[in-house]
Amino acid sequence: MFLGTRRVDALSPYDRGHAYGDGLFETLRAHRGELPWWDAHWARLARGAQRLRLPLPDPAQVRSEASQVLAGLDAVLKLILTRGEGGRGYAPSAQAEPVWTISRHPLPPASPAGGLTLRWCDLPLSEQPALAGLKHCNRLEQVLARAEWDDPAIDEGLLCDASGAVVCATAANVFVLQAGVWRTPPVDRSGVAGVCRQVLMELAEVRVQRLNADDVLGADAVFLCNAVRGILPVARLGERHWAPHPAMAGLRHRLGATHPAFVPSQD
Amino acid sequence: MFLGTRRVDALSPYDRGHAYGDGLFETLRAHRGELPWWDAHWARLARGAQRLRLPLPDPAQVRSEASQVLAGLDAVLKLILTRGEGGRGYAPSAQAEPVWTISRHPLPPASPAGGLTLRWCDLPLSEQPALAGLKHCNRLEQVLARAEWDDPAIDEGLLCDASGAVVCATAANVFVLQAGVWRTPPVDRSGVAGVCRQVLMELAEVRVQRLNADDVLGADAVFLCNAVRGILPVARLGERHWAPHPAMAGLRHRLGATHPAFVPSQD
Protein backbone atom coordinates (compact mmCIF):
# COMPACT_ATOMS: atom_id res chain seq x y z
CA MET A 1 0.00 0.00 0.00
CA PHE A 2 1.19 3.43 -0.87
CA LEU A 3 0.19 6.94 0.13
CA GLY A 4 1.38 9.06 -2.78
CA THR A 5 4.89 7.65 -3.23
CA ARG A 6 5.39 6.42 0.37
CA ARG A 7 4.82 2.83 1.37
CA VAL A 8 2.34 2.52 4.25
CA ASP A 9 1.44 -0.49 6.35
CA ALA A 10 -2.29 -0.07 6.72
CA LEU A 11 -5.33 1.50 5.18
CA SER A 12 -6.83 4.38 7.10
CA PRO A 13 -10.38 3.74 8.32
CA TYR A 14 -11.04 7.28 7.03
CA ASP A 15 -10.01 6.41 3.48
CA ARG A 16 -12.70 7.58 1.09
CA GLY A 17 -12.37 4.29 -0.73
CA HIS A 18 -13.72 2.58 2.37
CA ALA A 19 -16.34 5.25 3.12
CA TYR A 20 -17.72 5.94 -0.36
CA GLY A 21 -16.10 3.60 -2.88
CA ASP A 22 -14.36 6.81 -4.01
CA GLY A 23 -11.78 5.20 -6.25
CA LEU A 24 -10.91 3.19 -9.33
CA PHE A 25 -9.38 -0.21 -9.95
CA GLU A 26 -7.75 -2.29 -12.64
CA THR A 27 -7.44 -6.05 -12.84
CA LEU A 28 -4.50 -7.08 -15.03
CA ARG A 29 -3.30 -10.38 -16.42
CA ALA A 30 0.37 -11.01 -15.62
CA HIS A 31 2.34 -13.42 -17.79
CA ARG A 32 5.76 -14.44 -16.46
CA GLY A 33 5.75 -11.28 -14.40
CA GLU A 34 4.90 -9.02 -17.34
CA LEU A 35 1.74 -7.03 -17.91
CA PRO A 36 0.96 -7.29 -21.62
CA TRP A 37 -1.92 -4.78 -21.62
CA TRP A 38 -0.39 -2.30 -19.18
CA ASP A 39 -0.75 0.69 -21.50
CA ALA A 40 -4.47 0.12 -22.10
CA HIS A 41 -5.11 -0.40 -18.37
CA TRP A 42 -3.21 2.73 -17.44
CA ALA A 43 -5.02 4.75 -20.12
CA ARG A 44 -8.41 3.67 -18.72
CA LEU A 45 -7.26 4.43 -15.17
CA ALA A 46 -6.15 7.89 -16.33
CA ARG A 47 -9.51 8.53 -18.02
CA GLY A 48 -11.29 7.54 -14.82
CA ALA A 49 -8.99 9.66 -12.69
CA GLN A 50 -9.70 12.65 -14.88
CA ARG A 51 -13.46 12.08 -14.64
CA LEU A 52 -13.30 11.72 -10.83
CA ARG A 53 -10.57 14.38 -10.48
CA LEU A 54 -8.34 11.91 -8.67
CA PRO A 55 -4.58 12.49 -8.80
CA LEU A 56 -2.72 9.59 -10.45
CA PRO A 57 0.30 7.96 -8.85
CA ASP A 58 3.59 7.81 -10.77
CA PRO A 59 3.16 5.04 -13.36
CA ALA A 60 6.86 4.14 -13.27
CA GLN A 61 6.66 3.52 -9.52
CA VAL A 62 3.46 1.47 -9.83
CA ARG A 63 5.01 -0.65 -12.56
CA SER A 64 8.19 -1.20 -10.66
CA GLU A 65 6.34 -2.21 -7.48
CA ALA A 66 4.07 -4.45 -9.54
CA SER A 67 7.07 -6.16 -11.04
CA GLN A 68 8.41 -6.96 -7.55
CA VAL A 69 5.03 -8.22 -6.37
CA LEU A 70 4.65 -10.42 -9.44
CA ALA A 71 8.09 -12.04 -9.06
CA GLY A 72 8.03 -13.38 -12.60
CA LEU A 73 4.82 -15.36 -12.12
CA ASP A 74 1.67 -15.94 -14.13
CA ALA A 75 -0.96 -14.25 -12.00
CA VAL A 76 -3.62 -11.58 -11.67
CA LEU A 77 -2.52 -8.13 -10.50
CA LYS A 78 -5.11 -5.92 -8.88
CA LEU A 79 -4.50 -2.18 -8.55
CA ILE A 80 -6.86 -0.04 -6.46
CA LEU A 81 -6.56 3.75 -6.43
CA THR A 82 -8.60 5.73 -3.90
CA ARG A 83 -8.85 9.38 -2.95
CA GLY A 84 -7.27 8.79 0.45
CA GLU A 85 -8.36 10.48 3.64
CA GLY A 86 -10.97 13.15 3.36
CA GLY A 87 -12.69 13.57 6.68
CA ARG A 88 -16.45 13.26 6.85
CA GLY A 89 -18.53 14.67 4.01
CA TYR A 90 -18.71 14.17 0.27
CA ALA A 91 -16.66 17.18 -0.81
CA PRO A 92 -13.38 15.81 -2.15
CA SER A 93 -10.35 17.41 -0.56
CA ALA A 94 -8.02 19.00 -3.08
CA GLN A 95 -4.99 18.20 -0.90
CA ALA A 96 -5.59 14.49 -0.29
CA GLU A 97 -2.78 12.26 -1.48
CA PRO A 98 -4.11 9.27 -3.43
CA VAL A 99 -3.78 5.84 -1.89
CA TRP A 100 -2.97 2.86 -4.08
CA THR A 101 -2.62 -0.80 -3.37
CA ILE A 102 -1.35 -3.60 -5.57
CA SER A 103 -1.93 -7.24 -4.86
CA ARG A 104 -1.17 -10.51 -6.62
CA HIS A 105 -3.80 -13.20 -6.96
CA PRO A 106 -3.71 -16.67 -8.54
CA LEU A 107 -5.05 -17.06 -12.06
CA PRO A 108 -8.67 -18.23 -12.07
CA PRO A 109 -9.30 -21.88 -12.92
CA ALA A 110 -9.45 -22.68 -16.64
CA SER A 111 -12.89 -22.08 -18.09
CA PRO A 112 -14.98 -25.14 -19.00
CA ALA A 113 -13.66 -26.71 -22.21
CA GLY A 114 -17.10 -26.82 -23.79
CA GLY A 115 -17.78 -23.14 -23.17
CA LEU A 116 -19.52 -21.09 -20.48
CA THR A 117 -23.02 -21.56 -19.14
CA LEU A 118 -24.78 -18.24 -18.57
CA ARG A 119 -27.95 -17.04 -16.92
CA TRP A 120 -29.90 -13.79 -17.09
CA CYS A 121 -29.56 -11.69 -13.95
CA ASP A 122 -32.75 -10.20 -12.50
CA LEU A 123 -31.16 -6.93 -11.38
CA PRO A 124 -31.50 -4.17 -13.98
CA LEU A 125 -28.35 -2.05 -14.14
CA SER A 126 -28.84 1.64 -13.48
CA GLU A 127 -27.80 4.24 -16.04
CA GLN A 128 -25.24 6.87 -15.08
CA PRO A 129 -23.41 8.41 -18.06
CA ALA A 130 -21.05 10.26 -15.69
CA LEU A 131 -19.65 6.96 -14.41
CA ALA A 132 -20.34 4.56 -17.29
CA GLY A 133 -17.30 2.97 -18.87
CA LEU A 134 -15.11 3.54 -15.81
CA LYS A 135 -13.82 0.75 -13.62
CA HIS A 136 -14.78 2.59 -10.45
CA CYS A 137 -15.16 1.14 -6.98
CA ASN A 138 -18.96 1.51 -6.71
CA ARG A 139 -19.73 -2.12 -7.48
CA LEU A 140 -22.74 -2.99 -5.33
CA GLU A 141 -24.80 -3.73 -8.45
CA GLN A 142 -22.26 -6.34 -9.53
CA VAL A 143 -22.16 -7.77 -6.00
CA LEU A 144 -25.96 -8.05 -5.91
CA ALA A 145 -26.11 -9.55 -9.41
CA ARG A 146 -23.39 -12.12 -8.64
CA ALA A 147 -25.20 -13.03 -5.43
CA GLU A 148 -28.30 -14.03 -7.42
CA TRP A 149 -26.98 -17.55 -7.96
CA ASP A 150 -24.74 -20.03 -6.21
CA ASP A 151 -25.19 -22.96 -8.59
CA PRO A 152 -21.60 -23.85 -9.58
CA ALA A 153 -22.89 -25.01 -12.99
CA ILE A 154 -23.58 -21.36 -13.86
CA ASP A 155 -20.41 -19.53 -14.87
CA GLU A 156 -21.66 -15.99 -15.38
CA GLY A 157 -24.77 -13.81 -15.57
CA LEU A 158 -25.82 -11.32 -18.22
CA LEU A 159 -27.15 -7.94 -17.14
CA CYS A 160 -29.59 -5.63 -18.90
CA ASP A 161 -30.48 -2.03 -18.14
CA ALA A 162 -34.01 -0.97 -17.17
CA SER A 163 -34.99 -0.61 -20.85
CA GLY A 164 -33.99 -4.22 -21.59
CA ALA A 165 -30.75 -3.44 -23.41
CA VAL A 166 -28.07 -6.06 -22.73
CA VAL A 167 -25.01 -4.38 -21.17
CA CYS A 168 -22.45 -6.93 -19.96
CA ALA A 169 -21.86 -9.87 -17.64
CA THR A 170 -21.04 -9.30 -13.96
CA ALA A 171 -17.29 -9.30 -14.68
CA ALA A 172 -16.95 -9.37 -18.46
CA ASN A 173 -18.08 -7.70 -21.66
CA VAL A 174 -20.24 -9.57 -24.16
CA PHE A 175 -19.88 -9.98 -27.93
CA VAL A 176 -22.34 -11.62 -30.33
CA LEU A 177 -21.96 -12.69 -33.97
CA GLN A 178 -24.81 -11.61 -36.24
CA ALA A 179 -24.65 -11.84 -40.04
CA GLY A 180 -20.92 -12.46 -39.92
CA VAL A 181 -20.10 -9.35 -37.86
CA TRP A 182 -19.20 -9.18 -34.18
CA ARG A 183 -21.28 -6.76 -32.15
CA THR A 184 -20.96 -5.50 -28.58
CA PRO A 185 -23.18 -3.11 -26.62
CA PRO A 186 -22.20 0.51 -25.96
CA VAL A 187 -20.95 1.32 -22.45
CA ASP A 188 -21.86 5.00 -22.35
CA ARG A 189 -24.78 4.64 -19.92
CA SER A 190 -23.85 1.51 -17.91
CA GLY A 191 -21.09 -1.06 -17.89
CA VAL A 192 -17.31 -0.96 -18.10
CA ALA A 193 -15.18 -0.21 -21.16
CA GLY A 194 -13.22 -3.45 -20.88
CA VAL A 195 -9.58 -3.57 -21.91
CA CYS A 196 -10.01 -6.89 -23.75
CA ARG A 197 -13.11 -5.45 -25.45
CA GLN A 198 -10.99 -2.56 -26.68
CA VAL A 199 -8.18 -4.83 -27.89
CA LEU A 200 -10.71 -6.90 -29.85
CA MET A 201 -12.22 -3.78 -31.41
CA GLU A 202 -8.77 -2.99 -32.76
CA LEU A 203 -8.17 -6.58 -33.99
CA ALA A 204 -11.46 -7.19 -35.81
CA GLU A 205 -14.44 -5.45 -37.31
CA VAL A 206 -16.73 -4.92 -34.34
CA ARG A 207 -19.95 -2.94 -34.40
CA VAL A 208 -20.93 -1.18 -31.18
CA GLN A 209 -24.70 -1.38 -31.08
CA ARG A 210 -27.62 -1.78 -28.75
CA LEU A 211 -28.52 -5.46 -28.28
CA ASN A 212 -31.59 -6.91 -26.64
CA ALA A 213 -32.11 -10.39 -25.24
CA ASP A 214 -33.44 -11.70 -28.57
CA ASP A 215 -30.33 -10.44 -30.35
CA VAL A 216 -28.20 -12.50 -27.99
CA LEU A 217 -30.37 -15.60 -28.22
CA GLY A 218 -30.56 -15.29 -32.00
CA ALA A 219 -26.80 -14.78 -32.47
CA ASP A 220 -24.67 -17.34 -34.33
CA ALA A 221 -22.02 -17.22 -31.61
CA VAL A 222 -21.57 -15.43 -28.26
CA PHE A 223 -18.54 -14.85 -26.09
CA LEU A 224 -17.60 -12.99 -22.94
CA CYS A 225 -14.22 -11.37 -22.52
CA ASN A 226 -12.12 -9.69 -19.89
CA ALA A 227 -8.50 -8.75 -19.42
CA VAL A 228 -7.70 -11.71 -17.19
CA ARG A 229 -9.27 -14.52 -19.21
CA GLY A 230 -9.36 -13.20 -22.77
CA ILE A 231 -12.17 -14.62 -24.94
CA LEU A 232 -14.57 -17.04 -23.22
CA PRO A 233 -16.90 -18.80 -25.68
CA VAL A 234 -20.46 -19.22 -24.46
CA ALA A 235 -22.02 -22.66 -24.88
CA ARG A 236 -25.33 -22.16 -23.17
CA LEU A 237 -27.82 -19.55 -22.02
CA GLY A 238 -31.02 -21.00 -20.61
CA GLU A 239 -32.37 -23.35 -23.29
CA ARG A 240 -30.15 -21.99 -26.04
CA HIS A 241 -27.01 -23.95 -26.98
CA TRP A 242 -24.20 -22.82 -29.25
CA ALA A 243 -21.79 -25.14 -31.04
CA PRO A 244 -18.17 -24.00 -31.50
CA HIS A 245 -18.04 -21.46 -34.34
CA PRO A 246 -15.12 -20.99 -36.75
CA ALA A 247 -15.31 -17.18 -36.44
CA MET A 248 -14.75 -17.54 -32.68
CA ALA A 249 -11.75 -19.82 -33.20
CA GLY A 250 -10.35 -17.30 -35.69
CA LEU A 251 -10.73 -14.39 -33.29
CA ARG A 252 -9.18 -16.31 -30.40
CA HIS A 253 -6.28 -17.21 -32.64
CA ARG A 254 -5.78 -13.57 -33.59
CA LEU A 255 -5.92 -12.51 -29.94
CA GLY A 256 -3.42 -15.23 -29.03
CA ALA A 257 -1.08 -13.92 -31.72
CA THR A 258 -0.87 -10.57 -29.90
CA HIS A 259 0.61 -12.14 -26.76
CA PRO A 260 1.30 -15.68 -25.49
CA ALA A 261 -0.80 -14.94 -22.38
CA PHE A 262 -3.90 -15.15 -24.55
CA VAL A 263 -3.19 -18.22 -26.65
CA PRO A 264 -6.30 -20.38 -26.29
CA SER A 265 -5.54 -23.71 -24.64
CA GLN A 266 -7.95 -25.59 -26.90
CA ASP A 267 -10.76 -24.71 -29.27
CA MET B 1 -12.24 -1.15 14.07
CA PHE B 2 -13.75 -4.51 14.68
CA LEU B 3 -13.78 -7.80 12.82
CA GLY B 4 -16.95 -9.48 14.04
CA THR B 5 -16.56 -8.92 17.79
CA ARG B 6 -12.73 -8.66 17.88
CA ARG B 7 -10.98 -5.30 17.89
CA VAL B 8 -8.46 -5.02 15.03
CA ASP B 9 -5.81 -2.40 14.41
CA ALA B 10 -6.04 -1.95 10.68
CA LEU B 11 -8.31 -2.37 7.69
CA SER B 12 -7.35 -5.11 5.31
CA PRO B 13 -6.50 -3.90 1.81
CA TYR B 14 -8.69 -6.81 0.69
CA ASP B 15 -11.74 -5.50 2.51
CA ARG B 16 -14.67 -5.44 0.12
CA GLY B 17 -15.58 -2.02 1.44
CA HIS B 18 -12.36 -0.73 -0.07
CA ALA B 19 -12.65 -2.78 -3.27
CA TYR B 20 -16.34 -2.38 -4.11
CA GLY B 21 -17.97 -0.02 -1.61
CA ASP B 22 -19.61 -3.26 -0.38
CA GLY B 23 -21.03 -1.88 2.85
CA LEU B 24 -23.39 0.45 4.67
CA PHE B 25 -22.96 3.42 6.95
CA GLU B 26 -24.82 5.53 9.46
CA THR B 27 -24.05 9.08 10.56
CA LEU B 28 -25.54 9.80 13.99
CA ARG B 29 -25.89 12.91 16.07
CA ALA B 30 -24.50 12.45 19.58
CA HIS B 31 -25.73 14.70 22.38
CA ARG B 32 -23.75 14.56 25.63
CA GLY B 33 -22.55 11.14 24.59
CA GLU B 34 -26.04 9.83 23.85
CA LEU B 35 -27.47 8.81 20.51
CA PRO B 36 -31.09 10.03 20.49
CA TRP B 37 -32.08 8.35 17.20
CA TRP B 38 -30.13 5.13 17.71
CA ASP B 39 -33.16 2.86 17.16
CA ALA B 40 -34.06 4.45 13.83
CA HIS B 41 -30.43 4.31 12.63
CA TRP B 42 -30.07 0.69 13.64
CA ALA B 43 -33.36 -0.22 11.97
CA ARG B 44 -32.19 1.34 8.70
CA LEU B 45 -28.83 -0.41 8.98
CA ALA B 46 -30.65 -3.70 9.55
CA ARG B 47 -32.87 -3.14 6.49
CA GLY B 48 -29.77 -2.43 4.39
CA ALA B 49 -27.95 -5.44 5.78
CA GLN B 50 -30.89 -7.65 4.89
CA ARG B 51 -31.00 -6.24 1.35
CA LEU B 52 -27.23 -6.75 0.87
CA ARG B 53 -27.20 -10.01 2.89
CA LEU B 54 -24.56 -8.58 5.21
CA PRO B 55 -24.33 -10.01 8.72
CA LEU B 56 -24.97 -7.39 11.40
CA PRO B 57 -22.65 -6.92 14.36
CA ASP B 58 -24.03 -7.18 17.89
CA PRO B 59 -25.88 -3.90 18.53
CA ALA B 60 -25.07 -3.97 22.25
CA GLN B 61 -21.36 -4.12 21.49
CA VAL B 62 -21.57 -1.33 18.91
CA ARG B 63 -23.47 0.87 21.33
CA SER B 64 -21.10 0.21 24.17
CA GLU B 65 -18.03 0.96 22.00
CA ALA B 66 -19.76 4.07 20.66
CA SER B 67 -20.39 5.27 24.18
CA GLN B 68 -16.67 4.97 24.99
CA VAL B 69 -15.67 6.74 21.78
CA LEU B 70 -18.14 9.57 22.45
CA ALA B 71 -16.93 10.17 26.02
CA GLY B 72 -20.01 12.19 26.87
CA LEU B 73 -19.49 14.75 24.12
CA ASP B 74 -21.71 16.49 21.57
CA ALA B 75 -20.38 15.09 18.32
CA VAL B 76 -21.09 13.13 15.15
CA LEU B 77 -20.65 9.36 15.27
CA LYS B 78 -19.98 7.56 12.03
CA LEU B 79 -20.48 3.80 11.79
CA ILE B 80 -19.32 1.92 8.69
CA LEU B 81 -20.17 -1.76 8.19
CA THR B 82 -18.50 -3.66 5.35
CA ARG B 83 -18.51 -7.25 4.19
CA GLY B 84 -14.89 -7.78 5.19
CA GLU B 85 -12.37 -9.78 3.21
CA GLY B 86 -13.66 -11.62 0.21
CA GLY B 87 -10.80 -12.31 -2.16
CA ARG B 88 -11.01 -11.11 -5.72
CA GLY B 89 -14.36 -11.31 -7.51
CA TYR B 90 -17.85 -10.03 -6.89
CA ALA B 91 -19.35 -13.17 -5.36
CA PRO B 92 -19.89 -12.39 -1.68
CA SER B 93 -18.37 -14.98 0.63
CA ALA B 94 -20.87 -16.56 2.99
CA GLN B 95 -18.19 -16.99 5.66
CA ALA B 96 -16.77 -13.47 5.76
CA GLU B 97 -17.01 -11.78 9.14
CA PRO B 98 -18.33 -8.22 8.83
CA VAL B 99 -15.97 -5.37 9.59
CA TRP B 100 -17.24 -2.29 11.38
CA THR B 101 -15.62 0.94 12.37
CA ILE B 102 -16.89 3.76 14.56
CA SER B 103 -15.37 7.20 14.62
CA ARG B 104 -16.16 10.47 16.37
CA HIS B 105 -16.18 13.74 14.44
CA PRO B 106 -16.83 17.33 15.53
CA LEU B 107 -20.31 18.77 14.98
CA PRO B 108 -20.50 20.75 11.75
CA PRO B 109 -20.49 24.56 12.05
CA ALA B 110 -23.88 26.13 12.75
CA SER B 111 -25.88 26.70 9.59
CA PRO B 112 -26.27 30.29 8.37
CA ALA B 113 -28.79 32.14 10.57
CA GLY B 114 -30.73 33.41 7.56
CA GLY B 115 -31.15 29.95 6.02
CA LEU B 116 -29.30 27.88 3.45
CA THR B 117 -28.34 28.90 -0.07
CA LEU B 118 -28.83 26.06 -2.54
CA ARG B 119 -27.95 25.34 -6.15
CA TRP B 120 -29.18 22.78 -8.65
CA CYS B 121 -26.63 20.06 -9.34
CA ASP B 122 -26.02 19.13 -12.97
CA LEU B 123 -25.53 15.41 -12.33
CA PRO B 124 -28.75 13.43 -12.75
CA LEU B 125 -29.02 10.68 -10.13
CA SER B 126 -29.35 7.16 -11.49
CA GLU B 127 -32.30 4.98 -10.56
CA GLN B 128 -31.68 1.67 -8.82
CA PRO B 129 -34.67 0.38 -6.84
CA ALA B 130 -32.55 -2.45 -5.38
CA LEU B 131 -30.33 0.07 -3.58
CA ALA B 132 -32.59 3.12 -3.23
CA GLY B 133 -33.32 4.22 0.32
CA LEU B 134 -30.24 2.49 1.74
CA LYS B 135 -27.30 4.37 3.16
CA HIS B 136 -24.82 2.19 1.27
CA CYS B 137 -21.18 2.93 0.57
CA ASN B 138 -21.51 3.45 -3.21
CA ARG B 139 -21.46 7.24 -3.05
CA LEU B 140 -19.58 8.37 -6.16
CA GLU B 141 -22.67 10.21 -7.41
CA GLN B 142 -22.73 12.30 -4.24
CA VAL B 143 -18.98 12.89 -4.48
CA LEU B 144 -19.32 14.06 -8.10
CA ALA B 145 -22.33 16.24 -7.29
CA ARG B 146 -20.63 17.87 -4.29
CA ALA B 147 -17.54 18.51 -6.43
CA GLU B 148 -19.62 20.61 -8.85
CA TRP B 149 -19.11 23.75 -6.75
CA ASP B 150 -16.52 25.18 -4.42
CA ASP B 151 -18.15 28.55 -3.79
CA PRO B 152 -18.41 28.72 0.03
CA ALA B 153 -21.58 30.85 -0.35
CA ILE B 154 -23.41 27.73 -1.62
CA ASP B 155 -24.40 25.45 1.23
CA GLU B 156 -25.92 22.51 -0.59
CA GLY B 157 -27.04 21.24 -4.00
CA LEU B 158 -30.34 19.69 -5.03
CA LEU B 159 -30.30 16.59 -7.22
CA CYS B 160 -32.87 15.36 -9.72
CA ASP B 161 -33.14 12.01 -11.46
CA ALA B 162 -32.94 11.68 -15.25
CA SER B 163 -36.69 12.33 -15.58
CA GLY B 164 -36.39 15.67 -13.74
CA ALA B 165 -37.89 14.51 -10.45
CA VAL B 166 -36.25 16.19 -7.46
CA VAL B 167 -34.77 13.53 -5.15
CA CYS B 168 -32.63 15.08 -2.38
CA ALA B 169 -29.60 17.23 -1.63
CA THR B 170 -26.11 15.72 -1.64
CA ALA B 171 -26.31 14.97 2.10
CA ALA B 172 -29.88 15.74 3.14
CA ASN B 173 -33.51 15.10 2.30
CA VAL B 174 -35.74 17.90 1.05
CA PHE B 175 -39.22 19.00 2.17
CA VAL B 176 -41.44 21.65 0.59
CA LEU B 177 -44.61 23.32 1.84
CA GLN B 178 -47.45 23.48 -0.70
CA ALA B 179 -51.03 24.45 0.19
CA GLY B 180 -50.27 24.11 3.88
CA VAL B 181 -48.93 20.52 3.66
CA TRP B 182 -45.32 19.37 3.81
CA ARG B 183 -44.25 17.15 0.93
CA THR B 184 -41.09 15.15 0.34
CA PRO B 185 -40.07 13.01 -2.65
CA PRO B 186 -40.20 9.20 -2.59
CA VAL B 187 -36.86 7.42 -2.19
CA ASP B 188 -37.77 4.14 -3.82
CA ARG B 189 -35.75 4.67 -7.01
CA SER B 190 -32.92 6.99 -5.85
CA GLY B 191 -31.90 8.76 -2.66
CA VAL B 192 -31.64 7.78 0.98
CA ALA B 193 -34.47 7.18 3.44
CA GLY B 194 -33.16 9.71 5.94
CA VAL B 195 -33.65 9.15 9.65
CA CYS B 196 -34.66 12.78 10.26
CA ARG B 197 -37.05 12.53 7.28
CA GLN B 198 -38.66 9.53 8.95
CA VAL B 199 -38.91 11.24 12.35
CA LEU B 200 -40.61 14.23 10.70
CA MET B 201 -43.06 11.97 8.89
CA GLU B 202 -44.12 10.66 12.28
CA LEU B 203 -44.34 14.17 13.81
CA ALA B 204 -46.36 15.93 11.14
CA GLU B 205 -48.64 15.33 8.19
CA VAL B 206 -46.19 14.76 5.33
CA ARG B 207 -47.15 13.68 1.84
CA VAL B 208 -44.62 11.57 -0.06
CA GLN B 209 -44.98 12.66 -3.65
CA ARG B 210 -43.01 13.26 -6.79
CA LEU B 211 -41.79 16.88 -7.01
CA ASN B 212 -40.25 18.67 -9.96
CA ALA B 213 -38.12 21.80 -10.00
CA ASP B 214 -41.17 24.05 -10.39
CA ASP B 215 -42.79 22.48 -7.33
CA VAL B 216 -39.74 23.41 -5.28
CA LEU B 217 -39.48 26.93 -6.69
CA GLY B 218 -43.23 27.49 -6.24
CA ALA B 219 -43.31 26.18 -2.65
CA ASP B 220 -44.18 28.47 0.25
CA ALA B 221 -41.24 27.15 2.29
CA VAL B 222 -38.42 24.64 1.74
CA PHE B 223 -36.08 22.89 4.13
CA LEU B 224 -33.38 20.25 4.08
CA CYS B 225 -32.92 17.81 6.91
CA ASN B 226 -30.55 15.16 8.11
CA ALA B 227 -29.85 13.27 11.30
CA VAL B 228 -26.88 15.42 12.26
CA ARG B 229 -28.33 18.88 11.73
CA GLY B 230 -32.09 18.41 12.00
CA ILE B 231 -34.19 20.89 10.00
CA LEU B 232 -32.25 23.40 7.88
CA PRO B 233 -34.50 26.15 6.45
CA VAL B 234 -33.69 27.15 2.88
CA ALA B 235 -33.45 30.90 2.17
CA ARG B 236 -32.37 30.87 -1.44
CA LEU B 237 -32.22 28.74 -4.56
CA GLY B 238 -30.92 30.61 -7.60
CA GLU B 239 -33.10 33.72 -7.92
CA ARG B 240 -35.79 32.46 -5.55
CA HIS B 241 -35.81 33.76 -1.97
CA TRP B 242 -37.90 32.49 0.92
CA ALA B 243 -38.73 34.46 4.05
CA PRO B 244 -39.00 32.60 7.37
CA HIS B 245 -42.33 30.77 7.50
CA PRO B 246 -44.37 30.11 10.64
CA ALA B 247 -45.03 26.50 9.62
CA MET B 248 -41.27 25.91 9.55
CA ALA B 249 -40.84 27.43 12.99
CA GLY B 250 -43.64 25.22 14.26
CA LEU B 251 -42.11 22.05 12.87
CA ARG B 252 -38.64 22.90 14.22
CA HIS B 253 -40.20 23.50 17.59
CA ARG B 254 -41.95 20.12 17.50
CA LEU B 255 -38.71 18.40 16.48
CA GLY B 256 -36.84 20.18 19.28
CA ALA B 257 -39.46 18.92 21.75
CA THR B 258 -38.49 15.31 20.90
CA HIS B 259 -34.91 15.78 22.09
CA PRO B 260 -32.71 18.70 23.26
CA ALA B 261 -30.18 17.87 20.52
CA PHE B 262 -32.62 19.26 17.98
CA VAL B 263 -33.79 22.43 19.70
CA PRO B 264 -33.32 25.17 17.10
CA SER B 265 -30.83 27.80 18.23
CA GLN B 266 -32.88 30.65 16.76
CA ASP B 267 -35.82 30.98 14.39
TrEMBL record, chains A, B:
Spell out the InterPro entries in the cross-references.
Answer: Aminodeoxychorismate_lyase_IV (IPR017824), Aminotrans_IV (IPR001544), Aminotransferase-like (IPR036038), BCAT-like_C (IPR043132), BCAT-like_N (IPR043131), Class-IV_PLP-Dep_Aminotrnsfr (IPR050571)
In terms of CDD domains, this protein maps to:
ADCL_like
Q: Gene3D superfamilies under this entry?
A: 3.30.470.10, D-amino Acid Aminotransferase, subunit A, domain 2
This chain belongs to the protein called Aminodeoxychorismate lyase
Kindly list the GO CC terms recorded for this protein: cytosol
Sorted alphabetically, the keyword list is: Folate biosynthesis, Lyase, Pyridoxal phosphate
Q: Which cofactor does it need?
A: pyridoxal 5'-phosphate
Q: Which family does it belong to?
A: Belongs to the class-IV pyridoxal-phosphate-dependent aminotransferase family.
Q: Which GO terms describe its molecular function?
A: 4-amino-4-deoxychorismate lyase activity; pyridoxal phosphate binding
Subunit text:
Homodimer.
Biological process annotations from GO: 4-aminobenzoate biosynthetic process; folic acid biosynthetic process
Q: Which SUPFAM superfamilies match?
A: D-aminoacid aminotransferase-like PLP-dependent enzymes
- What is this enzyme's catalytic activity, as reactions? 4-amino-4-deoxychorismate = 4-aminobenzoate + pyruvate + H(+)
- Source domain of life: Bacteria
A Pfam family the protein falls into: Aminotran_4
- This entry's Enzyme Commission designation comes to 4.1.3.38
Protein's pathway:
Cofactor biosynthesis; tetrahydrofolate biosynthesis; 4-aminobenzoate from chorismate: step 2/2
Keyword match Nucleotide-binding: no
